[in-house]
Amino acid sequence: xxxxxxxxxxxxxxxxxxxxxxxxxxxxxxxxxxxxxxxxxxxxxxxxxxxxxxxxxxxxxxxxxxxxxxxxxxxxxxxxxxxxxxxxxxxxxxxxxxxxxxxxxxxxxxxxxxxxxxxxxxxxxxxxxxxxxxxxxxxxxxxxxxxxxxxxxxxx
Length: 156
Known about the structure:
Elements: H1 5-136, H2 146-155
Helix pairs in contact: 1-2
């Protein structure tokens, strides 16, 4: 095989092309590839940080929810205790009111009994006077014998 001038010319031009490519084209391509690699690495790191932050936020949300549930349970327990206390207070007040009503009714009944006894005494005294008047066939003066009628009423 013979090496001729064309092949040598082509080899020289190829070497010049390689040198120009290595001097002017290859460095910007390497820089663009390095920047792209850096962007990809930054994106992956940001995605990892986002994932960690999401997990942390989920933990905080779960803690906040648990705390809120505990506080709600405490509030409900306090409200139930207060409701129970109000019911007990109301029962006590109702008992006091019932006792007052019963004692008032008993006092009123006693007064009515005393009035009835007094009316009965007066009626018996009137009947006794009327009976004595019929027996004696004359009128007995109630004003004149008031001391006797009073002692008769007291005796009944």
